[in-house]
Amino acid sequence: MLLIHPPVAKTCEPPAGIARLAGVLRANDLPCTLLDTNLEAQLFLLSSPPTPKDTWSKRACCNISNNLAALRSVDLYNNPDRYKRAVADINRVLEISGREHDVTLSIANYQDSKLSPLKSADLLYAADHFEDNIFYPYFAERLGHILETEQPAMVGISLNYLSQALCTFALVGFLKMNYPGLNVVLGGGLVTSWLRNTSWKNPFSGLVDHMIAGPGEKPLLALLKKKTQNAYYVPDYLGLPLSDYLAPGFILPYSASSGCYWNKCSFCPEKAEDNPYTQVPVDQVLNDIRRLSTETKPALLHLLDNAISPALMKAFEENPPGINWYGFARFSSHFADEEYCKALRKSGCVMLKLGLESGDQGVLDAMNKGIDLDLVSRVLKSLHKAGITTYIYMLFGTPAETITEARHTLNFVAEHDEAIGFLNLAIFNMPVCSDEAHSLAISEFYDGDLSIYTDFRHPHGWNRKIVRRFVDQEFKRHPAIATILRRDPPLFTSNHAPFFSTH
Q: What mean pLDDT do residues 333-362 have?
């Protein structure tokens, strides 16, 4: 079987989804090949850019090899200005390459000027006209060689983000045209969101053979007519180009759980899509990380959990994994204990991503976040004193928020600026499957039958346009907040943030 990670997404670490499936298949004596077409296709474009005209583009194209090498070296991350210039130059080469195909292309995104990933008709068009895709020359050469030499009976594609959708369907179209007997399976986060929508009607039945929602291990084994008693398998990254990713050393992605152990926040996609919480036993996690670390020699461990469990963090304190690590966590009373945080830092924790969402208690209560601002304040200070960087996620425009509450958030963030390493700012999107959507007047958010979000009439008139104006013209311009925002690694954001010290 051939397992594919499609363009376009960040290229700083290998795709965990297909590595997890590889672990299942190989443990059951089912051979498979892993192909990160996202990384390979971007490097393919970067290796042969179009002839530039302006000074910046000429410089960027001339320095592409040096900049790629620099991003793989730890030295660059000691100089934020040089880092930003290298990332901007690499992105510039992708940008000018995309223009020739009417595509807005970047390290982290792919937008077609004529086609939308939210419209099934456009995705089918992308499949029918796969030769028009900017990555077609790469697909034709690379996939053609693999399929001719290895002759897999099935191809699985992990489609997680909207930025991957059009390229995924161009890839599917190429496969179906040239290898009509090949079974194509689609899975991944975006496919799961589509299939979990109660109004889902499959528009791809004549093109895609199978679509899988949620974890794909058992459904994939069933498709391959393989029975197994095991419920869990160790991910396998063998076959991926581990030294080619754009990071100063190999970043090991690992999921110790799926779903969220809190699972109560209003408007959360995990809750809206009814994704169950499952956890890998802590002893198994520790064994997996030791084994994978021996095999891959990682510079950093990236825990992909929606929220790292307190049990796992305690286990890390008692049995440090031996490498620096980071991931998402919930604000909890454990982090208010400075000694606990120091022990966590000693275990290798360099950064925690924390979803605060709002600096107003009423908004937090309305969202059922289960945290209070006094606790948040103590947690931020304890983590900062312990030397653990925080990457804080804020969300504006929720139904309970108005300009008053938004300014409370501004004041809270500004008052804690020294303890906040990085900020991620987002405008609220209502998940189309959310239970709360039924209590509001909703309307189409985007023009497309595959949209996973819906628009709504804000009960206080705090609409997206006004919210965006506040964020851009007031929140971001506060001197203390602007300083935090300037630290954020461009394009790679939280994936590269652990390599920068904010202390």
A: 97
